[in-house]
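> call design_seq(struct)
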């Protein structure tokens, strides 16, 4: 019996450590205020299958409006947030957008990209945002995997 226990302990010691998984959601408190810290979307969200998107992206401070199918800045601006082709365009360190697009707030681009639409959170809590993007104000969001092309169609005002 002792030998079996020793072999079991030795075997357990040689098992590889489990892969680290990101903390996707944790509640925290600071100065009496409660809040939720969320993990990275790419690792913690559920998505529809990746596909090609084409339209206009307006990169703004606290805004990232993408309108699929739009051809101009004015057309993109006219679309209401409830339109099924209006998205929050999300980027992260794995998105290659910085290699292709010289980002400057207030600039609009005609852009073709590969992205995945985020699905709403399955588990809701009192901290759940109603939607996506800044302050949860967007009905839909896509996460950029790769930019195929981008053209500036309106430069940022000086």
């Amino acid at each position: 019996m002792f030998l079996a226990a020793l072999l079991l302990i030795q075997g357990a010691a040689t098992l590889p450590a489990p892969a680290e998984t990101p903390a996707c959601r944790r509640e925290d408190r600071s100065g009496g205020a409660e809040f939720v810290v969320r993990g990275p979307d790419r690792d913690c969200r559920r998505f529809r299958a990746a596909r090609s998107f084409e339209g206009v992206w307006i990169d703004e401070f606290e805004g990232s409006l993408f309108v699929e199918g739009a051809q101009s800045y004015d057309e993109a601006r006219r679309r209401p947030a409830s339109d099924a082709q209006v998205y929050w365009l999300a980027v992260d360190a794995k998105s290659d957008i910085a290699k292709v697009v010289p980002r400057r707030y207030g600039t609009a681009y005609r852009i073709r990209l590969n992205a995945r639409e985020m699905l709403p959170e399955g588990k809701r809590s009192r901290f759940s945002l109603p939607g996506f993007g800044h302050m949860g104000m967007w009905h839909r969001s896509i996460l950029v995997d790769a930019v195929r092309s981008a053209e500036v169609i309106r430069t940022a005002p000086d």
